[in-house]
Amino acid sequence: MSITTSRRGFLKGAAATGAVLMVGVTPKGALAAGSGAQLNPFVKIGADGSVTAIVKHFEKGQGPATGLSTLVAEELGLRMDQITFEFAPSNPQVYNNLFFGPFQGTGGSTAMANSFMQYRQAGAAAREMLLEAAAQSWGVDARELVLEEGVISGAGQSAPLGDFVAAAAERSAPENPRLKDPSEFRLIGNAAVRRLDSPAKTNGSAQFAMDLHLPNQMVAMIARPEQRGALATGFDDAAAREVKGFLNAALLPNKAGVAVYAETTWAAMQAREALEVTWDTSAAETRSSDEIEAEIRAALEAEPTYNINKADVAATRAAIAAADRVVEQTFYFPLLAHAPMEPLNCTIEPLADGGIILHDGAQMPTGPHMALSQILELPMEKVQVKTMLAGGSFGRRATPDADYQVEAGLAFAMTDRTRPVKLVWSREDDLRSGYYRPAFGHKVRVGLNADGDIVGWEHQIAGQSIMKGTAFESMVVKDGIDHSSVEGTSDSPYQIPNGAFGLTDTEKATSTLWWRSVGHTHTAYVMEVMMDMAAQAAGRDPVDFRLAYLTGEGDDQKRMAGVLKLAAEKGGWGRAPAGHSKGIAVHKSFGSYVAEVVEISGSAEDGIRIENVTCAVDCGIAVNPDVVVAQMEGGIGYGIGHVMRDRITLTGGAVDQYNFPDYEPLRIGDIANIDVHIVPSAAPPSGVGEPGTPPAAPALANAIAAQSDLRVGALPMDENGVAWA
Amino acid sequence: MAFSLKLNGKTHQVDAEAGTPLLWVIRDELKMTGTKFGCGVASCGACTVHMDGEPVRSCQTYIEDVEGSEITTIEAMADSRIGAAVQQAWVELDVVQCGYCQSGQIMSAVGLLSENPKPNPAEIDDYMYGNACRCATYQRIRAGIQRAAEILEA
User: Fold this and answer.
1) A612: closest CA among A588, A663, A577?
2) Who among A269, A341, A389 is closest to B46 (CB)?
3) CATH T-level fold of B2-76
4) What average pLDDT is seen over chain A?
5) Do A300 and A278 share a structural domain?
6) Same domain for A301 and A248
7) What does the pLDDT look like over A540-559, one tens digit per residue?
8) In which residue ranges of chain B is CATH 3.10.20.30 found?
9) B40 to chain A: which residues are within 8 Å by CB?
């Protein structure tokens, strides 16, 4: 075993455990101790030649298991069928998201962006070590050797890479392994590369956290209050005891609910149904969504608390007052649930040494790792997190307070800690007791001169901060402004003259959370509908009008203009079959630029059908192009599905929706076709999980306006004048 | 109560209360986890299995109602001609994202192809309406069914 510290502080170690070559970064503590036992690798190669990528990001369908494996396989010269993946254990020093500090987690569409160099370097270092080992064994120069498809050859020799694993593991990791030049890529950027998780997800063998059945496990469900903030004061479990398989019920120590324990999921569901809980509602939320909306709309009419872009507001107002025409629109965005297909769940497994394993589709392992360590009074090293496949998330599995894992911890702590406890949420729990995309309102006034040019843009935002009051506040909130409330407005690539952007925070009546594309879910809608309205008022083509504000020489403007032009070209902008109309929108989020053209038929009165969506995306290097296409398809569906007909509402503080019949998901017939085009790029990879979502809804809204003059300012559309075919 | 359950060609003796959804017998008693729990009210289709060859929602099908019927789950699809074609098409096109709904999607797709070997897009949309996919993989589900039809025709 040997460890080398690189001057650049990156690749620090390779260690042999038996005949295994592991390459990764070593935690600082372990290096100081000179021990390789704690080396947590990015790539692991067995003497049998098996290569495993250790994936530090969770897989909720967005593709990092395939993506990070692709990076390793590329640099190791492997075919994709020669590599498998495992999820990394929780270790915030080694497997941290490089954009999050010492914190392991997936979010903000960063999985590929932060891993791109790291996993390539690990693969490249492993390749060099194997080649050096082979060269030494054969008495030749390593420069004469190549590693292709698992075979090392050259200088008249040839052998499988596994033959040199033991010798390679004795070597020091190279300080600066040579990475492939992009012209040498065979897997990166190759649209024929298939997902590694497709077969298991197609034959029923894929194991999601919900599928875990540990020997002797119990299932726990939580009886929750109707109103947020109500406290459980007692319960009667007489009827629950009649349920076969019922084990016990216990008041959670924080009084947030009552834990019901049973032998099976069905027994837990029935027992919870039969439980009578008494609630203290004196401190509970009582507001209704109408009151939340009224508060937000009132805030839009008052002076904003924060001046987002430090604008000269008086100058903006004067410019608009002197304008030839003024375009004005108010917008309202309701609460939305994430509703991933797999209801939330996780399992806590007790170990003989007093420690535990959390089995979880863990989006941010560091959060529950720390939380369970505290709740169960265990040192961090006695808490392991085993990441399993996650059945979607859209942000829901990453809460700043590790909500469902904490519930599982509390439920487990109240037992004798001898049996595994699997905490299961129902769909009703998910929709009624969840965290929501916050409600927001915007009010925008745009002044145009006689030539139809923008002379001033006054933009008020009011809504519920996601970050304030959470552990992330200090990182994201600057000068009182929660960036996630305003992202995509004043920082848009558009060069808007006399822009004044203001923000007012309003009270939360529910827990709020990032929801696929976070602030961009509402800001893109507002920016792009306003751009469309301004173009219409100016009598100009919506694409040309937008391009006039993207003329700068900056990369931001060029890339935004690039996708806009490509989407317009591929989407047949400017022509449509009889009875069809089109709308366009473009937005930058998570470092990527996406433009979409939506084509519709029918009418808002009699029913609109979405005939086609054409998407152009610039996400830098598209590592797995087909995964990028899939993420655009999914992001478009997620964006459109919710604005068509979804909202979470409250009556007297209680959520009105129960299950999918009240929160109708996008269905297969809702969008007839989607075409995705990727802009070739040599820029570093940027996000793809979220950026497809923001432009979809405004492009749809603009298509509706193009045929009917109906400008949908409040969502969902079906409650604001739009019928669906 | 004791029930006899014929599943994937095998008969299982199951001890369950009448009224227990087939979904939970399959998952919690037989520990066959390819069939998924998504909503519990038959509105997402993640729990779809075949009962005598017809897709049904196992969350709303009770153990006492399936005695004497043949139940087939995703785990046996590779053994059926249509099931294998659908799975092949799904892998070729990388239909899945998170994958949680896909067992149900495949069970419904096999049901569709069993009664309509060459469905057009409108027929696919109509038949598959009840299978929700929150990742919105619908574009590829539609293409996957058409590809499976091609495979079966060949």
Assistant:
1) A577
2) A341
3) Ubiquitin-like (UB roll) (3.10.20)
4) 94
5) no
6) no
7) 999 999 999 999 899 999 99
8) 2-76
9) 269, 426-427, 659
What are A297-339's pLDDT values in tens digits? Answer: 999 999 999 999 999 999 999 999 999 999 999 999 999 999 9
- Chain A partners within 8 Å of B31 (Cβ): 213
pLDDT band at A39; cut points 50, 70, 90: low
Distance, in Å, from the CA atom of A528 to the CA atom of A586, rounded to the nearest integer, reads: 7
Task: With beta carbons less than 8 A apart as the criterion, state whether A725 and A609 touch.
Answer: yes
- Strands A440-448 and A454-463 turn out to be antiparallel
Q: pLDDT tens digits, residue range A684-708?
A: 999 999 999 999 999 999 999 999 9
Q: What percent of chain A has pLDDT over 70?
A: 95
Helices (H), A45-194: 64-76, 111-138, 165-169
Asked if the Cβ–Cβ distance from B129 to A668 is below 8 Å, we say yes
Q: What is the DSSP letter of A421?
A: E
Mean pLDDT of A342-358: 98
Q: Is A175 on the interface with B (CB under 8 A)?
A: no
B24 and A197 within 8 Å at the Cβ level: the answer is: no
C-alpha–C-alpha distance, residues A662 and A335, integer Å: 14
User: Do A222 and A168 belong to one domain?
Assistant: no
Domain(s) labelled CATH 1.10.150.120 in chain B stretch across: 80-153
Q: Do A668 and B100 touch (CB under 8 A)?
A: no
Using CB atoms within 10 A of its CB, is residue B130 exposed (0-12), middle (13-18) or buried (19+)? middle
What is the least distance, in Å, from the CA of B68 to any CA of chain A?
23
| Mean pLDDT score, B102-121 | 98
Q: Does B95 touch chain A (CB under 8 A)?
A: yes
User: Which one, of A19, A11, A14, A8, lies nearest residue A50 by Cα?
Assistant: A19
Contact A667, A526 (CB under 8 A): no
**Smallest CA–CA distance from A214 into chain B, residue:** B31
Token pair recorded at residue A549 = 């504000």
For residue A716, whether the previous peptide bond is cis, meaning omega lies within 30 degrees of 0, is yes
Is any Cβ of chain A less than 8 angstroms from the Cβ of B10?
no
Model confidence pLDDT, tens digit, residues A132-161: 999 999 999 999 999 999 999 999 999 999
Residues 6+ apart with CB under 8 A from A99: A108, A110, A113, A114
- Of A421, A487, A199, A424, give the one whose Cα is nearest residue B87: A199
Same domain, A589 and A698: yes
Taking the Cβ of residue B50 and every Cβ of chain A, the question of whether any pair is shorter than 8 Å is answered with: no
Could you read off the pLDDT of A224-278 as tens digits, one per residue? 999 999 999 999 999 999 999 999 999 999 999 999 999 999 999 999 999 999 9
Q: Note whether A341 contacts B126, CB cutoff 8 Å.
A: no
Q: Residue B138: its chain A contacts at CB < 8 A?
A: 637, 666-668, 670-671
Q: Which residue of chain A comes nearest to B122, CA vs CA?
A: A669
CATH fold for the domain made of B80-153: DNA polymerase; domain 1 (1.10.150)
Domain with residue A399: its CATH number is 3.30.365.10
Asked if residue A496 and residue A528 are part of one domain, the reply reads yes
Residue type, B128: M
Of A60, A195, A213, the CB nearest to B31: A213
Alpha-carbon distances, residue A719 vs A297, A334, A610, A724, B37 (angstroms): 18, 11, 18, 11, 30
- State which of A171, A196, A221 marks the end of a domain: A196
Structure tokens at A162: 């596994």
Q: Residue B43: which region, alpha, beta or left (left: phi > 0; alpha: psi -120 to 50)?
A: alpha
Q: Is the pLDDT of residue A17 over 50?
A: no
**Residues A712 and A704: beta-carbon distance below 8 Å:** yes
The CA distance from A268 to A345, in Å, is 13
B39 and A199 in contact by Cβ < 8 A? no
